[in-house]
Write a structure and sequence with these properties.
homodimer; alpha/beta; nicotinate phosphoribosyltransferase; TIM Barrel
Chain lengths: 440, 440
Amino acid sequence: MSDSSGSVLLTDWYQLTMLQAYFDEGMAETAVFECFVRSLPPGRDFLIAAGLEQLLQYVETLRFTPLELDWLAGQHRFKPAFLDYLRDFRFCGDIDAMPEGTLFYPNEPILRVTAPIAQAQLIESRLINLVHFQTVVASKAVRCALAAPGKRLVDFGFRRTHGGEAGLMAARACYLAGYDGTATVQAGMRFGIPVFGTMAHSYVEAHATEVEAFEHFARSQPDNVVLLIDTYDTEAAARKVAALAPRLAQQGIRIGSVRLDSGDLAAHARAVRAILDAAGQQGIGIFCSGNLDEDELRCLLAAGAPIDGFGVGTRVDTACDSPYLDCVYKLQEYAGTARRKRSTGKATWPGRKQVYRCYAADGRFDHDVVALLDEPPPAGEPLLQSCMRQGQRVGAAVTLAQSRDHVAAQLRRLPATRPYRVEISPALQDLAQQLDREEH
Amino acid sequence: MSDSSGSVLLTDWYQLTMLQAYFDEGMAETAVFECFVRSLPPGRDFLIAAGLEQLLQYVETLRFTPLELDWLAGQHRFKPAFLDYLRDFRFCGDIDAMPEGTLFYPNEPILRVTAPIAQAQLIESRLINLVHFQTVVASKAVRCALAAPGKRLVDFGFRRTHGGEAGLMAARACYLAGYDGTATVQAGMRFGIPVFGTMAHSYVEAHATEVEAFEHFARSQPDNVVLLIDTYDTEAAARKVAALAPRLAQQGIRIGSVRLDSGDLAAHARAVRAILDAAGQQGIGIFCSGNLDEDELRCLLAAGAPIDGFGVGTRVDTACDSPYLDCVYKLQEYAGTARRKRSTGKATWPGRKQVYRCYAADGRFDHDVVALLDEPPPAGEPLLQSCMRQGQRVGAAVTLAQSRDHVAAQLRRLPATRPYRVEISPALQDLAQQLDREEH
């Protein structure tokens, strides 16, 4: 597909019709929207905020191109004066957000946009689209990192992610969450993520024999020999590797590891380990892949399977047990007045808010407080930080490596008990009750 | 994110290291790969092939850019002669595929690539990435079309799809499957899909009263007035709409419909219908959204809820019950010899194959036969058709509208019994057994 990842038309039609209405009415006061997740899906104790960098890039470069304006004009739904106004449309608002990699909980704003209402409104769809998905994947991938400490974890999921951008963002989110790298080449080029690879069954099958395939591959990639051994018979292939290793060693080529991709991985890993060890090849590692997720990793390691690393793909990159979060972006204030949606099951906490994290004496998370920005700040570390003012970035640039370290540091401070307590400040509760008494 | 949707580096690292090895070994014979899905996920009786158009665009334009080659050179893993070879790398192979919109079943090849092995190998990752996701969504979305015949169905899912490309491809796959349109503006511009929209809660909240919001919006978009009525109190808002409608009618503005987005949709729809009807507003339709999927649609309609259309989003666009398929692309022949992977649980049917669909006397699907391409063709309609020869498209261009009609026509011929029978021809079974006896 040709490019559209930066297109302003990656939005919902109603954003444009609402913009036309705001334009017609002359409604241009400041709106405050906040982005949050309403609830934790089953199997998640916390979530990880991700995707802010892509969001900031999007709002910085947001423009209607002449081609897009022509197309919109051709829909005969917008007035010429409004289309003229779109021609010069820019995002000039403020954004405050939790830094990428921050652990968060339901109903905590992770991002606040303060801007003239049309600007804050238009970006809603793509804002959620960018922040939601990386948050979904990082919050799943971190569970693999927690399940397999000290093991190499590589994102193998590109092919079954939901499109090209999904593949890139999944690689980024997995690395943020603690993976060692990805197989997706473009993610390496784009984000500087370490790239790993092995070989495919097709490579083995294209050769007359497995040994020939192994030997040719090792000669071609002598610095990174990972041999896939489950194409025909895993243990038979392991014996071939054990016999080949000394021969390659004489040529100065070391086999790094073998990969298992099917069958009972724990049983195969044990059998292969025994074969390699018996041949004096303790240095060859065992790398596993195939339908893995945090539960499978935990089972394999609990069973004592001698596995050194994992290629984790589809199940994490699609977050298959919870492929979406109830992630929303809601108007909390307009023209200086707090606003509250009261729809059944979807009521929001009104006003501009801040999240304060309180730590226990041992340094672990104790609880969070969601409070109004303008009330006397409660104890705790404020989590939302300014990152954009009047459309310009503020604060020091944050690298992906720094965000990854931020995740790792918080994982050492995870609370010992669950569920985690998130308090709503009394002033915020009062404001909500007060708004509920108003007529609309 | 800046563009990368056409990048050749949207691939796995091992494709490049295998290409280097093929290059070193002088392996350039013709390979035949086929793409298929190993099994139906729960809750699917059939799948719908989709994404072929995007795949053909990708292979037609596949190039290594100077920037990409520089980056690869900087990884110090590839030899200069190989990088030179990549500079002129093009896809010059053949592709045969089921036309988009074709219903298919497990283990049936939906696409065959015949090309020098490096070309067929390199495209694997992005090929699956492009074909898999649209197939996932079309196969889910068609269930909504079947559950709600005659109702307007609009894709509302962009914001929670897995990235921008996912949003566009989901909109396309839903339309292919039978939806009436999408809310995603770029999908309208790109694919010519009809675009629909309503209004958001934020629009209502930004106004002092609901009536003011409704009236302003109607004036601004007089040709397409859909009013969202669940921001505060659904039935109260319905009464306001009933009172507003005659006033707007005097100005020549007709309210098209109201939208419900929360609570017990069936109960609210009934109450709202009664309020509108009592006010003589039988012409105002009821449109519903909010966490819908085929099961919810079926329940609402079975309960007789007076709903005229649905905005279906997240649950279908992420295919939340089965967000991925076991979709693979496997080497079936190299240098004129059939190949077969034998990994536990992942064995493949070898050789170049064709799928034949056999119909019953009443025109319905009866069963399919998977056979070798070079055996005497069994009865039935061959489903894979040539679409590319030596890198050039062949055959008439197929429009998205034609593919959508193709889906609709097949839905009228769905088999009455399940599971559907897919036969493997005796010659194909013989070939597989013969390969299993070979040593590797």
